[in-house]
Amino acid sequence: MEKQPRLLASQLLLKNSLFEVSLNRVLLTWKEIPTKKKRVSGGIHHPFKVAGPRSATAALAWIASLCRVNWMAHNLASEFFFMSWLTFFITSQGTSHGVSVSEILAVRELDVDSGRKDDGRWQKMPQKSTEAYPYAFTVSYVERAWQHRWRCSDVTFHCLEGALCQQWVQTIREQLTALTSRPKHLLVYINPYGGKQQGERIYEQKVAPLFTLASISTDVIVTEHANHARDHLRTEAELKQYDGVVCVGGDGMFSEMVHGLVSRTQRDNGVDQNSPEEKLVPCTLRIGIIPAGSTDCICYATVGINDPVTSALHIIVGDAQPMDVCSVHHNNTFLRYSVSLLGYGFYGDVLADSERKRWMGPARYDFSGFKTFLTHHYYEGTVSFLPATDILGTPRDKTRCRAGCFICQHNGQLYSEDAPEICETDPDVSDSEYKGGWRVIRGKFLAINAASMSCACPRSPKGLSPAAHLADGTTDLILVRKCSRFNFLRHLLRHTSKYDQFDMTFVEVHRVRRFRFTPRYCQSDSELDLRENGKRLFSQICRDHPACSCSPAYSSWNCDGEILPHAAIEVGVHCQLIKLFARGIEEQPVFEDLPNPCAV
Ligand SMILES: CCCCCCCCCCCCC/C=C/[C@@H](O)[C@H](CO)NC(=O)CCCCCCCCCCCCCCC
Ligand SMILES: Nc1ncnc2c1ncn2[C@@H]1O[C@H](COP(=O)(O)OP(=O)(O)OP(=O)(O)O)[C@@H](O)[C@H]1O
Ligand SMILES: [Ca+2]
Fold it and tell me: Is 224 in the pocket of ligand 2 (CB under 6 A)?
């Protein structure tokens, strides 16, 4: 392989040791020069926070916190990450370090005499270096911390000559300017009432300083009511002047961004959203999420953690993660878009009940979850779906959708070529039929879930469908048939353990491109009337089925945390319709001779 040309290489002083520092097109590296006289003065040095005297303490605090987290959560995956990190820590011992240019956040000159950086921040300078090496510059870069967290780290290099210092700063700035995927101007919406109502504080204290450091300018709107962000994006915002839009809030706020941006894009391109068959036009602007909500499921599944600083850094480096979006229609009328969960039965009932308990905060989901579990309602209806048979991957795969996912890339290309739909038959399933490539299943269901991505979240770190993909153009349709409470509990519990939640006789899962659901007792427009007249229908069903456990005729659809007004819906997946400022979950180092607990 051809070696990258060196743009710059010099001997610079770093923490009172001489370092060979070099910058090529992809990497900034610094390596301690192994001479006897290498140290101007003593002091420990390690590869993480090379610039600050607080580094060793920070590293120890980090190790302590990680041990605590591991002890509490028994999270084997992070234990392996911890061990490999420790190995790296011990073996590298501060002699050399490399940072990808794409992960440099900023560079600034340091006014050594005054001890002030050119962004106005103050820093204590070591005495020896100011005398011998009077010029300095600081590079801020992304450093990986525990469990997918990213942090901003600084390294300060000292130079003998001012011209050399300026040359370094200028060259690094040129390199950063050449990174065209980085946003320069962003439109930010803050929901002051999301999650624990900390949105504004999180943005001001944790995110805004990082955007300033990276020279990103922003227009900030603090929302005044629900759907403020959606409507502003859809009709008013002058989107041409921005490189992306950012929301500070939870999944509900993200859903507003998706609706605003997707609707705007379709309107600008003359596409009718009410037609279920219409091919939607992908949005060009990327969406950033600064997590400040109750569930933060989208953030968790696209970044690996719901951490505001990590998300801000992914925005700054200009990451891009395409994502599938489901459109939901009822009788040729557009209802909503979904990016995570469409759930009828259990998750619909949990949401409907939890809406009445908003005052409980995030705990309302657990309360309503427990109540819904005890209620144990099942719902009758017909599910028809178009299996995605011509793609790579199945919902039972052991592999996971991770940064640079091959399956998403491959299937994304396939979809852009409009692959033909393939018809298959499966004679083993007695209550299903095939009609023009569609499979039809009638039954009694405790839950019908469509997961367009894993739906990993703190409640279930592997998610509702652990092998689902962010951008493969499919959704995983999970059908949980009527079963005993005990079996349903076993199924639910498996979402929190290594065991396969689909490996149960009453559960089936299909990777699909489109699906429809029709509840048994309503096949027409009069559905809403029937719903309002629910009591009469309920007793009717009970008379028809004396042995039934008095289940109502309808549940509601939970569409990314919003209740849909209809039970009969038609859903289509739009491959890679939107893009996020994210890169998917990064793999963490795992020792090869040990079993990988995530892969069970
Ligand atoms: C025994 C423990 C079993 C735990 C099983 C946990 C599975 C949890 C799976 C969560 C999937 C979340 C999908 C994300 C959906 C988001 O687009 C949406 C918007 O934020 N969130 C919700 O709708 C919010 C939905 C929140 C749903 C919470 C469900 C909690 C179930 C608790 C069941 C307790 C049974 C206890 C029996 C003794
Ligand atoms: N200023 C506002 N006042 C009231 N509601 C708002 C405001 N701005 C946004 N919202 C709405 O608040 C809802 C919840 O917001 P968000 O997703 O940020 O927080 P959350 O705590 O995660 O909520 P949830 O778990 O219900 O999604 C969103 O659906 C959004 O439409
Ligand atoms: Ca998908």
Answer: yes
Our count of domains for the chain comes to 3
Specify whether 278 is located in the same domain as 418.
no
Report the separation in Å between the CA atom of 159 and the middle of ligand 3, taken as the mean of its atom positions.
51
Please check whether residues 247 and 396 belong to one and the same domain: no
CATH of the domain at 303: 3.40.50.10330
User: How far away, in angstroms, is 221 Cα from ligand 2 center?
Assistant: 14
The pLDDT of residue 90 is: 33
Same domain for 212 and 289: yes
Is residue 584 assigned to a domain?
Answer: no
Q: What is the CATH number of the domain that holds 142?
A: 2.30.29.30
Q: Say if ligand 2 is within 6 A of residue 260 CB.
A: no
* Interatomic CA distance for residues 586 and 304, integer angstroms: 8
Report the catalytic residues: 251
Which atom of ligand 2 lies nearest, measured to the CA of 247?
Answer: 18
What is the model's pLDDT at position 414?
76
Query: In terms of domains, do 411 and 555 share one?
Result: yes
Low-confidence ranges of the chain (pLDDT < 70): 1-6, 35-95, 112-131, 417-435, 522-550, 589-600
User: For position 132, what pLDDT does the model report?
Assistant: 75
Quote ipTM for the complex: 0.96
Half-sphere exposure (Cβ direction) of 168: Cα atoms closer than 13 Å: 29
pLDDT score for 35: 62
What's residue 121's pLDDT?
56
The whole-number pLDDT of residue 119 equals: 56
Task: Quickly list DSSP for 396-420.
Answer: T-S----TT-HHHHHHHHHHHTTPP
Last residue of some domain: 319, 346, 373? 319
d(CA 117, CA 111): 6
Residues 331-362, buried b or exposed e (16+ Cβ, 10 A)?
eeebbbbbbbbbbbbbbbbbbbbbeeeeeeee
- Name the DSSP letter for residue 576: E
pLDDT at 73: 35
The type of residue at 204 is E
| DSSP per-residue codes, 191-255 | -TTSTTT-HHHHIIIIIHHHHHHTT-EEEEEE--STTHHHHIIIII--GGG-SEEEEEE-HHHHH
How many angstroms does the Cα of residue 46 sit away from the middle of ligand 1? 42
- Residue 361 shares a structural domain with residue 446: yes
Domain that holds residue 205: 181-319
Our answer on whether the CB atom of 456 is closer than 6 Å to any ligand 1 atom is no
Tokens 């498996």 correspond to 494
Q: How many residues make up the chain in this entry?
A: 600
**210 token code pair:** 């990082």
* 304 shares its domain with 344: no
